[in-house]
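DATA SHEET
Item: assembly model
Revision: 1
Owner: S.N.
Input lines:
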Amino acid sequence: MRYLPHMDADRQSMLADIGVEHIDELFRDVPAAALLKEPITSLPNHATELEVERMLSRMAGRNTPASAVPFFIGCGAYKHHVPASVDHLIQRGEFLTSYTPYQPEIAQGTLQYLFEFQTQVARLTGMEVANASMYDGSTATTEAIFMARRITRRKKALISAGVHPHYVDVAKALAKVSGDELVIGTPELAKGKPGGDYEALLGQIDKTTSCVVVQNPNLFGYVADLTELAEACHANGALLVVVVTEVVSLGLMKSPGEMGADIVVGEGQSIGNGLNYGGPYLGLFACREKFVRQMPGRLCGETVDADGRRGYVLTLSTREQHIRREKATSNICTNSGLCALAFTIHLSLLGEAGLRQLAQFNHARAVQAAERLAKVPGVEVLNDAFFNEFTIRLSKPSRDVVRELGNRDILAGVALSRLYPTETALHDGVVLAVTEIVTESDIEALAKGLEEVLSC
Amino acid sequence: MLNRQGRPTGTGEGASAEGFTTFTGHKGLDLNEPLIFEIGRGDRTGVDVPDAPKVASRLGGLEREAPIGLPGLSEPEAVRHYTRLSRKNYAIDMGLFPLGSCTMKHNPRLNEKMARLAGFSDIHPLQPQDTVQGALELIDTVAHWLMELTGMPAVAMSPKAGAHGELCGLLAIRAALEARGDAREVVLVPESAHGTNPATAAFCGYRVEEIPATENGRVDFEALKKRLGPDVAAIMLTNPNTCGLFEPDIIKIAEAVHAVGAFFYCDGANFNAIVGKVRPGDLGVDAMHINLHKTFSTPHGGGGPGSGPVVFSEALAPFAPLPYVKKTEERFELVEHLEEGDQSFGRMVAFHGQMGMFVRAASYMLSHGADGLRQAAEDAVLNANYIMAKLQDVMTPAFEGPCMHEALFDDRFLKDTGVTTLDFAKAMIDEGYHPMTMYFPLVVHGAMLIEPTETESRASLDEFIGALRSLAEAAKNGEKERFTAAPHFAPVKRLDETRAARQPVLSYKNTAEPGSVTTPVAAE
Amino acid sequence: MTVYFTKDHEWVRVEGDTGTIGISEYAQGQLGDVVFVELPEIGRTVAPGDELAVVESVKAASEVYAPVSGEVVEANEALNDDPSLVNSGAEGEGWFARVRLSDTAELEALMDEAAYKDYVASLA
């Protein structure tokens, strides 16, 4: 067994040093009836590296990778090109096989990149502070709702119809026990601004509102200026929570902070991280400095060592479970350290100029796609404003169309019936993401495919 | 041919590093590295992006005007920056990492290779299910292994980490109690529990009550029995417990908990000690999370990502979260939405959980197999007991042995030396080790919790034992400075945590254009 | 002006119907460097044993309980800027809050300085 260094002779002599004859004497506290006498027979025994590679490669081979076909799927996870150096660097053993930096003297590498990461996230979102990451965008969003409750001491959160329905589901599952009241908007495929229910929200904000949660760009790709919403929140003592699931958009668009957000959460997968069938992803969490003590998750801060040299430590940890126990701000323990590292490396490589260019390219390619698809009979592009994702309405049930295009090796976006099985009014809608990986010929293939499928 | 260079090859005149500082602030291989904000520039990029096609903007007038303040690095600069940073970290790849309760075992590289197969890493969570049958099969495979290894009939794969798994377990328990119209108020947690246990229970709306430990580090069964009643929703128990001991009364505990209609949540953080030897299902457990990053060798990555699937008993299985994979005769199906009559408590994450970690865990499970996993558990226990046996004369074990996969010491052996557990731990850094877990569990004074894991060779253990023996003796011999100023040989000295917390500096504050500060921050 | 102490190491200094509350010199020594204090809201009413404030050191957070009943009339805002006042002047400048006492009879249940001194000595 290649991962176990002991030979049987080592084991025997170590047992002798311990003073027992058989390993099971060390398991003496296990009730006899529960101690298995031999390996579990319903599972196979060990396998060679080559055998394991074959088994897993066979499973991997049954999936269609995004890079193999024209690919337009988004809705909370995005296919971007990640430079080779990112994956190379995160695989350095000193990053990959290190632990949470509780011993700062021998974890300055992790701590420094977390400090850099926090700064990048804060600047990108237009906030003053960001934490060292959360599990994913959905859990970060739920934590933001709870944090707003702690700050405002109010329980009612208004959630825009444009927030990712899975994010809303996560908040719903946890609100059952946290006591938060969630008022959730129902999305409509309105021409011009699908899922954009900001006027309705403006009418709902009052002195009992803890926060308003909006996603920008929203699930349907629609982008809006949130300034008025922020002002209405603040006039009522409520907070504006902005969710960003496509962080590349922040390279081109006004940041949530500039529009008045108090807490910005999001999914950082887009930068540095692959699709990975949904995880591991990278929850981003940023807020105004005055709220930092109510923030969940790990935080890294600057300080000095005994010789006065600059260094970094995890700080404000009294908010966390390992000290506050049942009074902690959250039960979160693990973060997404390595995903944060991939994010920060990719963003350092891009820099301001690169990110801006990348975002511009995404937007332009998406505009090209929208213009081309608008010419397909039976397709209506709904968004007037968008970044790299938009919603189209089809003349046929979208699920069937997406499936049929899948059979033709075109992964043509997300049929809204998949996300909203009971909202039949949305079932002719498809959300398409167009990133830099999409070529002009991919767009043409999609347009042709749609033409054929919709006309037969 | 004769060497005419005549260059000295001896050890030199013994010039000491002390007494002068280098121009760069570097010390040989110990290289200083400034922040990206001090070396990068906003107009520099390490990624070539093609020019955007010319189109009319459709951003709705939301174009960003103000600069963001993001520094850019070219690829060589980035590679050097992060490589230099990496060298300031301790890691399993470098040496024994005895952090108790964290199971810092070797992370096989095959796992990494497999997780990067395009068929796993480059598929989208919302792709049509026909295009991801292999991914669903992979999830189903890991689920199958977890159920067989634990003897439990169901598993929820989506929780993203151990604490998230605890949350999943308690939400299912709460849903099950509500389904039978039996709202309960209290969750019992032993004093020695991980902080996440009471945090999770409180989050789920329960009042947390502590149950005491006996003098030998086990749950006080009599005290527990006395406390159990119709108001108790669940007990959260770590087994093997955080003192590194198996709870001998565990079956009796489960029976007593079930007798009052409560559920038994087991914190599976220490499953590595018993995998393949004991199945929690045989002990009466109702729910248990499994940290794939501990038992199943997925990398800790400097603090995540983790993965915390939860196995469930029959009683709790109907309340497990969405989504889940269902195997039908001809294909795998991903169930993402509640159907009529479903009792699931709902969804915990945006998508399907930590697929990347599932692939790594599958690679590890298949590699070890049923026999190898059992051997791994035995070797983990063997190694911890070996350490305990070889150190018990110079350090003070907190409880009488044998232990399971981790050896717990208290600070009695440091009494009157002026050396604290913290000092002792920091001195281990000078010996080239990551410190053990300290001051946890809370029930032991000055606790030192050592978990060597099964992937350490005997030679490695012997060197570690030698180092600790030498430190224990040095402490007793009054060599206090070796400890109180430790670490002497780390990239930085002890850091001022008080200052960090009193005046938090949580982001780089220089608002000038990135790259305008180019002087490295050298030793002052 | 008299100072009373609790077994949880809070003190209350009574002047007229106002009680100034803080933690003892002994308690600050046990806590270590104080890095943050969560102060009570003005106007809140507290009863003996209610959580009045939270005091945090780097590695610990401890509740400060109200030794007496009353309404919070003032909180020591200076602690927001300089929590180390709790260390440097636990029984002086590092006070937490002032409370308008609603029941001075409660003071009888507390220790005076001498009794508290004996109590602390008994803990060692």
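QC remark: The two ends of chain B are 49 Å apart (CA to CA).
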